[in-house]
């Protein structure tokens, strides 16, 4: 299979790396390599070069991302061939030119590497068959041109220019991505071969207009069309060979290439005419106007480039086949004369050390040879007969003349282009007259002289082409033009004539008008310069760019300030509100009712009473929340009420657990209260509290509604299984306990392990920690004049055996009746904590070992061993068994292996709870002042 | 009930990470201060072994094990591999930073490894419960990592915020799961999907369930309006923690979304699609817009992460296999890009100095042109400029949206990515066009860091040029179902 097209694009890209590497071995090596690489790419192109002339289109493809339906597909038709030849041919000349242009301290390798990178990307654009591939190369040209423009990194203007070029063209490329996606969606394929045949479908599609706008955004930014033209003059900070390359045949032509490429698909609608024609005409005029008044040689050329690009765009915008042919022709001509002019400007800059036309004068004496070349090229730019620029300009005038005849307001267009033509003549004249004549040079940094031969040679080649095409069009450019036009139109070519003389008619009249008008304008340039100086900066689209950038930044800053305050409360508020909004959308959206089909149970008085008290107490907690101690006690009441609810719903086990856990929690919180002031300060304003109240009510209401929705729906609970299997499978009537020690024994083992670890972790953290707190008030009175009231202490001591007895009772009955190791453990822990609270730490520690670690350790060990025991008997881990024994006093008693496991749970719960609470208490000296004093004295 | 040891084979990667974490935990106790580097080596060895095991047990038919709680399929194989690779990068980048600050301790590695374990569990989850377990394991480790620099007030504040909001986010997710369970009677993805398909959206409880799941997923991705934590945590947390938090967890979050929404609730696609569209548009808009105004690069990257989350949602909401594959591609690529960006920040930091502001990147090219080039690749990739892989990722998700006729959404996405490109280009400007600060020393980095960063940066380019391999893996992951 032929794959030369792939290599045409790949060779320069790979050659870039080679060139950079070669530059290690000497400056000239990279220039030679770059030239060689370009020649190689040209050679690669040649085998296919004949086909487009016969009207064939070569498409070559290799699978690339089959998953996304993307191929590395390349296409060569006349248009592609024309551009590829220009890119490679002018590229070769630029490489030769740059070898002499760059000075000793410019890094050659880097320059040529960038240049080849750019060349490869550009070739990719013109040869791509696939739109996505085209886009990739498109963005790569933006990147590589960025590198080229910023080649002289040290210079501020180079950096700004490069950034601006990248920003504008890169962003345009992204817009184009959107357009291509739409185009691909409309056409059902990204392949140009498919798309180009579907013009009617595409133009009729409702997405046509947005797609067109997006694609044009890409094309216009690249081709520096109004209002995106401002980046191009700033890109002039690049080395001149770069400008000669980028702004004649390549980068900026990519935009018009795209217009030409998609011409058969997109053109022919009013949107196309207005957008493309309007932008082209505006650009044509604005560019020509500014070009005249630039004192910088390259600035003049930059604006003239903008103007000529506008001309080409306008031609495509007119939309007739003949106009398109004229557009293609002007692309060729502009590339040749503009490249040579840039090179000439580079020579002048190189030899004089400046490009300011107010200083560079009268160079004819110093460099007549260069002067001649420049004059020919400038004449071509002005559209003087016998040079190639004249031919395409004539065709352009002819098209506008036809337009004039066919449209009522067409004369406006004709008038505008004649004015643009005059300006073009004037600025071309200025280029020649100011630089080569017009008195003596003013204070030049260097004495000018002719450049080396090989620096002029590329200019001479291009100028020769200008002349040859201008005089003998039929023998030189005609076949290529025909092939390229066929590539653009994808349809039979209209009849056109490349003769120099078409007979007297409107176009010739317009040419004469332009030439004489241009002379007059140039003669009267002084007052115009003054006018331009006054208008300076008014018509600058860069200001709009800067303004838009500034506004976006301001807006972003404002959004940041409003939303991004870093306040956690605000974050939570936004979070809750967003959740509520989404919830509300779901609530309104679904359509189904909130209440489910389940038959509701009758409401009884007790439940209502409990619920009401619960609500009242909850509100009370809220109101009292700043009185910390009171709030805590009220919260305890809340816990008790919940225990009551559990009782009401026949869950005594849960109620017992809740009760004991509540006590332990309150003790824990009380210990923490030592370190806090009695009252919390009011931190938020009333308005804010009301707002929070609203949010909380909404969130609470939402949760309630959801609970309602779930409870009113039928639901298969898993409890049935446990109820049925509790006695036969686990040997216990207390389902909760059986679940804990049997069905979910593994979970429980994990839980007590976590509890043990948490206890140890807290112990490790608090062991060495002593937080001093005030034990006396301001007047020196102790907070608590009687830390351990005697009656209380005595009562608590009395209670201890009772409590322990209860816990043993609860533990033993646990398997069948409410109770179990967990509750028993908590009861024991609470009983012991009570001793600490009422009798003090020292008293308790004298009577009770304060080393709780063995307790926890034994608990875990027992739990694990019970589990392992079942493995010995060949059952899975933690399988339980049970048997009945007859105890003398108690009577029939069921002994399950699970009870051993429960003992483990019991021990861990006691150990961990005590460990945590005791050490939290020990942290502060208030309850055991003596220890506290010892600490302080230490 | 009998347990089959064959269940353990598919989770060998997870087991390897668990063992590594435990080994580091114990070995660290006996290491002298100057030998703490061993933790690093052990962690890397563990991760490499896990990658090897992922490859060894991966591939082939979808397997469901542990009573339907875990699954091993194309998705899990690929995502596990990606998470492990990105984690290796993160550990390598973090080491010099930790060493300079005397924080090269076992805890960092243990927490990091547990976070990785959590992510792997999420990826392998086949039930809501397992998903949540993995999520919490990951989140708890990350909370602690954020507070890892105990003396840093900013770090503590960030950790506090992360924890409070994270708890809220997880809570809402759990709430959603409970409602799904209430409506379907199951927490396994397959049965849930069947039950939901049978009853449709007629069940209000289900609707709320989805809402809360989407909120939870949005939170984990950092999607607007549940993004509030992202900028503050990125800014406040020590950079290595952000590196961990901002890279691989995005992949895990993707897994969360895929498992919950796509596998658990496929028949309600129309419902969660609407919500994801809202989140996507808001995220892309706010993320890209606000990122412009940031001067702190960590904050900028935070907003960029928010914007990228919006793009990942584009693929998810498409509801097509192509869209899921695109989103997966995007998530993996984003994790790699993010690791590279924060890696560069770590490279730029030195003892007593943390690179946090855009200004700190000034003149990177003069200080080390190779790292400058790598950061440039990362930034271009984030901006979605070809030929880097970021472009491919954007292209794929955009295409998936266009294919379901949500053209306007694609256009919005393009518009915001244009805005977004600005701030990435600004970073490049700082790197290449500005002079380094006078006191900026030459960058000294270890060979390992240089190799890792080179691989990281060049991968973005290579994947951009040859995306077929990764993309076909992504597509294969969704094709087999």
Automatic annotation (TrEMBL), chain A:
Residue ranges occupied by any NADH-Ubiquinone oxidoreductase (complex I) chain 5 N-terminal domain in the UniProt entry: 64-112
Which GO cellular component does the record give, naming just one? plasma membrane
Question: Domain MrpA C-terminal/MbhE spans what residues?
Answer: 688-770
Pfam families noted in UniProt: MbhD (PF13244), MbhE (PF20501), MnhB (PF04039), Proton_antipo_M (PF00361), Proton_antipo_N (PF00662)
Q: Which coarse location class applies to the principal site listed for this UniProt protein?
A: membrane
Q: Name one GO biological process term.
A: monoatomic ion transport
Keywords on record: Antiport, Cell membrane, Ion transport, Membrane, Transmembrane, Transmembrane helix, Transport
Q: What topology does it adopt in the membrane?
A: Multi-pass membrane protein
Compartments where found: Cell membrane; Membrane
What sections of the protein cross the membrane?
Answer: 6-23, 30-53, 79-99, 111-128, 164-187, 207-232, 244-266, 272-293, 369-388, 408-432, 453-478, 498-524, 571-594, 606-624, 631-649, 655-677, 693-711, 748-766, 791-812, 818-837, 858-878, 898-922
Q: State the source organism's domain of life.
A: Bacteria
Domain (MrpA C-terminal/MbhD): residue spans on this chain = 613-678
Positions of the NADH:quinone oxidoreductase/Mrp antiporter transmembrane domain: 128-401
Record domain Na+/H+ antiporter MnhB subunit-related protein: where:
791-914
Q: Which InterPro entries match?
A: CPA3_Na-H_Antiporter_A (IPR050616), MnhB (IPR007182), MrpA_C/MbhD (IPR025383), MrpA_C/MbhE (IPR046806), ND/Mrp_TM (IPR001750), Proton_antipo_N (IPR001516)
Please tell me whether the keyword Magnesium is annotated for this protein: no
Single GO MF descriptor? antiporter activity
- Stated name of the protein: Multisubunit potassium/proton antiporter PhaA subunit /multisubunit potassium/proton antiporter PhaB subunit
Its source organism is: Thiobaca trueperi
TrEMBL record, chain B:
Subcellular localization, as worded in the UniProt entry: Cell membrane; Endomembrane system; Membrane
Domain NADH:quinone oxidoreductase/Mrp antiporter transmembrane: where? Answer: 125-419
Question: What are the GO MF terms of this UniProt record?
Answer: NADH dehydrogenase (quinone) (non-electrogenic) activity; NADH dehydrogenase (ubiquinone) activity; quinone binding
> What stretch or stretches form a coiled coil here?
none
Reactions accelerated catalytically: a quinone + NADH + 5 H(+)(in) = a quinol + NAD(+) + 4 H(+)(out)
Q: Which GO terms describe its biological process?
A: ATP synthesis coupled electron transport
Q: Which InterPro entries match?
A: NADH-Q_OxRdtase_suN/2 (IPR010096), NADH_UbQ_OxRdtase (IPR003918), ND/Mrp_TM (IPR001750)
Which Pfam families is this protein grouped with? Proton_antipo_M
Q: Where are the transmembrane segments?
A: 12-31, 38-58, 78-96, 108-125, 160-181, 201-221, 242-262, 274-293, 300-318, 324-348, 369-386, 406-425, 458-480
- Give me the Gene Ontology terms describing cellular component: endomembrane system; plasma membrane
**EC number assigned by the record:** 7.1.1.-
Bilayer topology: Multi-pass membrane protein
This protein's UniProt keywords: Cell membrane, Membrane, NAD, Quinone, Translocase, Transmembrane, Transmembrane helix, Transport, Ubiquinone
Top-level taxonomic group: Bacteria
Q: What is its main location?
A: membrane
Tagged with keyword Metal-binding: no
Task: Give the multimer and partner information.
Answer: NDH-1 is composed of 14 different subunits. Subunits NuoA, H, J, K, L, M, N constitute the membrane sector of the complex.
Q: Which HAMAP family match?
A: NDH1_NuoN_1
Family to which the UniProt record says this protein belongs: Belongs to the complex I subunit 2 family.
Q: What does this protein do?
A: NDH-1 shuttles electrons from NADH, via FMN and iron-sulfur (Fe-S) centers, to quinones in the respiratory chain. The immediate electron acceptor for the enzyme in this species is believed to be ubiquinone. Couples the redox reaction to proton translocation (for every two electrons transferred, four hydrogen ions are translocated across the cytoplasmic membrane), and thus conserves the redox energy in a proton gradient.
Q: Which PANTHER family match?
A: NADH DEHYDROGENASE
Give the protein's recorded name. NADH-quinone oxidoreductase subunit N
Q: Which organism is it from?
A: Thiobaca trueperi
């Amino acid at each position: 299979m032929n794959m030369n097209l792939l290599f045409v694009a790949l060779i320069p890209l790979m050659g870039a790396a080679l060139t950079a590497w070669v530059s290690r071995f000497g400056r000239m090596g990279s220039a030679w390599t770059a030239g060689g690489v370009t020649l190689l790419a040209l050679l690669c192109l040649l085998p296919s070069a004949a086909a487009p002339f016969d009207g064939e289109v070569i498409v070559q493809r290799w699978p690339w991302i089959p998953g996304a339906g993307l191929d590395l597909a390349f296409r060569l038709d006349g248009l592609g061939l024309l551009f590829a030849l220009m890119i490679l041919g002018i590229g070769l000349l630029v490489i030769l030119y740059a070898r002499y242009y760059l000075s000793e301290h410019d890094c050659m390798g880097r320059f040529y590497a960038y240049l080849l990178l750019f060349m490869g990307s550009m070739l990719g654009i013109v040869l791509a068959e696939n739109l996505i591939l085209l886009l990739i190369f498109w963005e790569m040209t933006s990147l590589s041109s960025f590198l080229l423009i910023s080649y002289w990194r040290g210079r501020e203007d180079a950096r700004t220019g490069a950034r601006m070029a990248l920003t504008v063209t890169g962003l345009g490329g992204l817009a184009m991505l959107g357009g291509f996606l739409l185009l691909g969606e409309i056409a059902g394929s990204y392949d140009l071969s498919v798309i180009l045949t579907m013009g009617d479908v595409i133009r009729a599609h409702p997405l046509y207009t947005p797609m067109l706008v997006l694609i044009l955004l890409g094309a216009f930014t690249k081709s520096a069309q109004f209002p995106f033209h401002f980046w191009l003059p700033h890109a002039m900070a690049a080395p001149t060979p770069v400008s000669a390359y980028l702004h004649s045949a390549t980068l900026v032509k990519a935009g018009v290439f795209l217009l030409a490429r998609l011409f058969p698909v997109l053109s022919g609608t009013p949107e196309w005419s207005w957008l493309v024609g309007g932008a082209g005409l505006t650009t044509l005029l604005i560019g020509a106007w500014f070009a005249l008044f630039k004192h910088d040689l390259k600035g003049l050329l930059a604006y003239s480039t903008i103007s000529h690009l506008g001309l080409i765009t306008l031609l495509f915008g007119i939309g007739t086949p003949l106009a398109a042919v004229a557009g293609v022709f002007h692309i060729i001509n502009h590339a040749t004369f503009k490249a040579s002019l840039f090179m000439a400007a580079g020579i002048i800059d190189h030899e004089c050390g400046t490009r300011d036309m107010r200083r560079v004068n009268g160079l004819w004496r110093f460099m007549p040879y260069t002067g001649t070349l420049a004059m020919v090229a400038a004449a071509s730019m002005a559209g003087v007969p016998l040079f190639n620029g004249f031919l395409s300009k004539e065709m352009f005038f002819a098209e506008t003349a036809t337009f004039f005849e066919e449209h009522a307001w067409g004369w406006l267009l004709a008038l505008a282009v004649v004015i643009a033509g005059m300006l073009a003549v004037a600025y071309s004249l200025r280029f020649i007259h100011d630089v080569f004549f017009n008195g003596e040079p003013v204070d030049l940094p260097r004495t000018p002289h002719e450049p080396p031969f090989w620096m002029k040679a590329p200019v001479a080649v291009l100028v020769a082409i200008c002349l040859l095409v201008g005089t003998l069009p039929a023998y030189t450019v005609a076949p290529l033009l025909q092939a390229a036009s066929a590539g653009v139109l994808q349809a039979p070519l209209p009849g056109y004539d490349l003769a120099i003389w078409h007979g007297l008619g409107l176009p010739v009249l317009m040419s004469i008008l332009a030439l004489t008008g241009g002379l007059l304008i140039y003669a009267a340039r002084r007052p115009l310069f003054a006018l331009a100086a006054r208008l300076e900066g008014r018509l600058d689209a860069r200001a709009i760019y800067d303004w838009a950038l500034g506004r976006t930044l301001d807006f972003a800053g404002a959004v940041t300030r409003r939303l991004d305050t870093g306040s956690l409360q605000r974050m939570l508020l936004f979070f809750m509100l967003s959740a509520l909004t989404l919830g509300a959308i779901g609530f309104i959206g679904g359509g189904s009712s909130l209440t489910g089909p389940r038959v509701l149970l009758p409401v009884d008085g007790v439940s209502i009473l409990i619920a009401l008290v619960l609500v009242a107490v909850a509100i009370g907690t809220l109101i009292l929340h700043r009185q910390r101690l009171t709030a805590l006690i009220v919260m305890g009441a809340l816990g008790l009420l919940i225990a009551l609810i559990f009782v009401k719903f026949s869950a005594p086990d849960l109620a017992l657990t809740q009760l004991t856990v509540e006590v332990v929690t309150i003790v824990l919180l009380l210990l923490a209260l030592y370190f806090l002031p009695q009252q919390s300060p009011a931190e938020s304003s009333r308005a804010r509290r009301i707002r929070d109240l609203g949010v909380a009510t909404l969130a609470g209401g939402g949760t309630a509604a959801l609970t309602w929705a779930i409870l009113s729906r039928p639901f298969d609970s898993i409890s049935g299984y446990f109820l049925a299997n509790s006695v036969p499978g686990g040997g216990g009537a207390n389902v909760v306990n059986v679940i804990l020690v049997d069905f979910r024994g593994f979970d429980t083992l994990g839980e007590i392990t976590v509890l043990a670890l948490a206890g140890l972790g807290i112990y490790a953290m608090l062991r060495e920690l002593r937080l001093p707190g005030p034990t006396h008030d301001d007047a020196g009175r102790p907070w608590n004049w009687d830390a351990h009231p005697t009656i209380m202490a005595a009562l608590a001591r009395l209670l201890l055996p009772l409590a322990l007895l209860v816990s043993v009772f609860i533990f033993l009955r646990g398997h069948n009746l409410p109770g179990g190791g967990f509750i028993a453990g908590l009861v024991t822990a609470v009983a012991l904590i009570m001793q600490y609270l009422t009798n003090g730490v020292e008293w308790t520690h004298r009577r009770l070992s304060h080393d709780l670690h063995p307790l926890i350790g034994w608990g875990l060990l027992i739990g694990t061993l019970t589990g392992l025991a079942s493995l010995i008997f060949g059952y899975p881990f933690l399988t339980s068994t049970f048997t009945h024994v007859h105890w003398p006093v108690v009577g029939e008693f069921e002994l399950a292996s699970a009870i051993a496991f429960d003992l483990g749970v019991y021990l861990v719960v006691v150990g961990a709870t005590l460990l945590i609470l005791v050490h939290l208490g020990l942290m502060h000296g208030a309850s055991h002042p003596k220890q506290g004093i010892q600490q302080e004295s230490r | 009930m009998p347990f089959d040891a064959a269940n353990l084979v598919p989770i060998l990667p997870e087991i390897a990470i668990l063992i590594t974490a435990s080994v580091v935990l114990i070995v660290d106790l006996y290491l002298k201060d100057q030998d703490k580097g061993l933790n690093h080596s052990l962690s890397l060895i563990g991760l490499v072994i896990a990658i090897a095991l992922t490859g060894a047990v991966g591939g082939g038919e979808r397997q469901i094990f542990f009573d339907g709680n875990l699954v091993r399929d194309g998705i899990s194989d690929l995502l596990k591999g990606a998470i492990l690779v990105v984690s290796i990068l993160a550990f390598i980048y973090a080491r010099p930073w930790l060493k300079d600050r005397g924080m090269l301790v076992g805890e960092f590695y243990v927490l990091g490894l547990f976070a990785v374990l959590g992510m792997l569990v999420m990826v392998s989850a086949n039930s809501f419960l397992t998903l949540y377990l993995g999520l919490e394991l990951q989140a708890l480790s990350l909370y602690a990592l954020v507070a890892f620099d105990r003396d840093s007030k900013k770090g503590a504040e960030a950790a506090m915020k992360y924890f409070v909001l994270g708890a809220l986010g997880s809570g809402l997710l759990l709430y959603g799961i409970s409602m799904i369970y209430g409506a379907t009677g199951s927490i396994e993805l397959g049965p849930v999907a069947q039950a939901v398909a049978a009853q449709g959206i007629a069940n209000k409880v289900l609707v709320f369930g989805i809402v809360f799941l989407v909120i939870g997923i949005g939170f984990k991705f950092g999607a607007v309006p549940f993004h509030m934590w992202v900028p503050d945590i990125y800014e406040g947390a020590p950079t290595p923690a952000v590196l961990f938090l901002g890279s691989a967890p995005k992949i895990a979050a993707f897994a969360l979304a895929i498992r919950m929404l796509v596998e658990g609730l496929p028949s309600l696609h129309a419902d969660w699609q609407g919500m994801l569209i809202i989140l996507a548009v808001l995220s892309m808009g706010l993320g890209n817009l606000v990122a412009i105004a940031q001067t702190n690069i960590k904050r900028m990257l935070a907003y960029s992460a928010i914007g990228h989350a919006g793009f990942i949602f584009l693929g998810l909401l498409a509801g097509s296999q192509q869209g899921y594959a695109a989103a997966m591609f995007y998530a993996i690529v984003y994790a790699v890009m993010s690791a590279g960006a924060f890696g560069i920040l770590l490279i730029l930091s030195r003892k007593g100095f943390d690179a946090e502001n855009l200004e700190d990147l000034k003149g990177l090219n003069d200080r080390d042109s190779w790292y400058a080039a790598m950061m440039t690749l990362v930034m271009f990739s984030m901006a979605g400029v070809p030929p880097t892989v970021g472009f491919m990722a954007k292209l794929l998700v955009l295409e998936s949206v266009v294919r379901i006729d949500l053209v306007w959404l694609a256009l919005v996405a393009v518009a915001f990515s244009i805005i977004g490109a600005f701030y990435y280009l600004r970073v490049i400007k700082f790197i290449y066009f500005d002079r380094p600060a006078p006191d900026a020393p030459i960058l000294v980095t270890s060979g390992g860091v240089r190799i890792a960063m080179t691989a990281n940066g060049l991968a973005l380019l290579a994947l951009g040029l040859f995306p077929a391999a990764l993309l076909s893996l992504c597509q294969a992951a969704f094709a087999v179902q």
